[in-house]
Amino acid sequence: MSALTRWVTDHDSGHSRWYIDRFRRMAADGVDLAGEARLLDAIVARGVRILDAGCGPGRVGAELAARGHTVVGVDVDPELIAAAQVDHPGPTWLVADLAELDLASMGEPTPFDAAILAGNVMAFVAPDTEVQVLTRVADHVRPDGVVVVGFGLDRGYALTDFDVHAGAAGLQLEHRFATWDLRPPGADATFAVSVFRRAG
Known about the structure:
Strand content: 15-25%
Order of helices and strands: HHHEHEHEEHHEHEE
CATH architecture: 3-Layer(aba) Sandwich
Structural class: alpha/beta
CATH superfamily: Vaccinia Virus protein VP39
Oligomer: single chain
Number of strands: 7
C-alpha cells in the first residue's frame, strides 16, 4: 500500500465492524440500498462486467450481480471484504488498494465495461492519490466504458479538484446529478454523482 487511506487514518479499529453492522441492520429493516446500482444498471447493457471500486461490504456490487452483471468488488479493508464474501456470495471480492490496482495480477485480466465508486470512496482515498486512483480505475475499463462516481460535498474534497483529477485520468464528464435518483445539481447540493466516459 503506497499510503494509508483516510478510511484507515480517520477511523478507529472498530469502525469497519460498525459500518458492516449498520448496513446489515438497514437491509434487515427493508431500507432501499440499491439506488446506486439502479443508476448504473440503467446506463449499461445487460450482463456486462462491472468493477465495484471501494466496494465496502458489497451492497452495490451484490445488487448489480442480482441484475445479471458480472461483478468484481475491490476494497482496501480486509474486514469489509470478508463481510462481502459472507453476505453476498457470487461476485468476486478482492482486497486491494485502488491507488495500486492491478487486477490482471489477481486473476482478472479482462477489461470492465463500467466501474462505480459509491459510498464516498473518493473522500476516503489517501491524500494526494486521487489522480492515481482514478487513473488506475479508468485503466481497468475498456475505451468508451462508463465510470460513475458519487460523494458528499461536505467531505473535504472539492468538486472542482475532482473534475481536474478526473480529466487527468482520461475521464470525460457526460452527466452530473445531485443524487443517485438523478435530481439536478444546484447551488445547495450536498452530493454529486458524476457519469464519465473513458476516452478511447
